Amino acid sequence: MKKLFLLCSILLFSGPLLGQSTDNAAQETTLIMVRHAEKMDDGTRDPSLNDAGVERAERLANLLQEDFEVSAVYSTPYKRTQETAKPLADLIGSEIQTYDPRDPQGFIGFLMDSKKGKTVLIVGHSNTTPALVNLALGEDKYEQLDESAYGNIFIVSIDEKGEASVEERMY
């Protein structure tokens, strides 16, 4: 009888703790930020991806689909960013939503208000991607990416208190 009482007490008092950790995990917001894949050198201001870029965009989509439950895909309005985002958007059945790279603070604010507890992909540029990561972190940690750097993934996790951390990966 004492053992049954002890077991019931443990379950009764540990239930709220278990539920709380699940709620906290559900409130974590994940912003996956990448620079567009390799682009053509065609002399235009809005080039498409080259063959290596198309392959990289496919690799990114497969990697993210395996490791994350991405609920939305954002891109600047340029061909190279849209083409980088498209394979994942197609895999998850989502439309690519465009954002204005000239208003990074407004965009991060929008994401924090409307995508709380979600995971989103954001495709930007060598200068805008690190700037967005810095805004989400609340510190100037990252500089503009080198023009030859295409494989960086910045995974920014923001907890329910608004505290952010970043994990860097290569793909």
Number of strands: 6
First-last Cα distance: 58 Å
Based on CA inertia axes, which overall geometry fits? Answer: globular
Q: Can you tell me the number of structural domains?
A: 1
Here the CATH topology equals Rossmann fold
Quote the average pLDDT: 89
Architecture, CATH level 2? Answer: 3-Layer(aba) Sandwich
Low-confidence stretches: 1-24
Please indicate the percent range of residues in DSSP E strands (runs of 2 or more).
Answer: 15-25%
The level of helicity is 40-55%
CATH class categorisation: Alpha Beta
Task: Tell me the structural class.
Answer: alpha/beta
Total helices: the number is 5
Assembly status? single chain
Order of helices and strands: HEHEHEHEHEE
Computed CA radius of gyration, to the nearest angstrom: 20 Å
CATH homologous superfamily title? Phosphoglycerate mutase-like
Main sheet record: 6 strands, mixed
In a few lines, what is going on in this structure?
The protein has helices spanning 2-26, 51-67, 79-92, 104-114, 128-137; strands at 29-35, 72-75, 96-98, 119-124, 152-158, 164-170.
Structural summary, described in words:
The chain has a single domain (about 30-170), classed as Rossmann fold (3-Layer(aba) Sandwich), CATH 3.40.50.1240. A hairpin with a 5-residue loop joins strand 5 and strand 6 (about 165-170). The protein contains 5 helices and 6 strands; from the N terminus they run αβαβαβαβαββ. It has helices at about 1-25, 50-65, 80-90, 105-115, 130-135, and strands at about 30-35, 70-75, 95-100, 120-125, 150-160, 165-170. Mean pLDDT is about 90; it is low at about 1-25. The radius of gyration is 20 Å and the shape is globular. Strands 3-2-4-1-5-6 form a 6-stranded mixed β-sheet, sandwiched between helices. With about 170 residues, the chain is of the alpha/beta class. Helix 2 packs parallel to helix 3 (about 80-90).
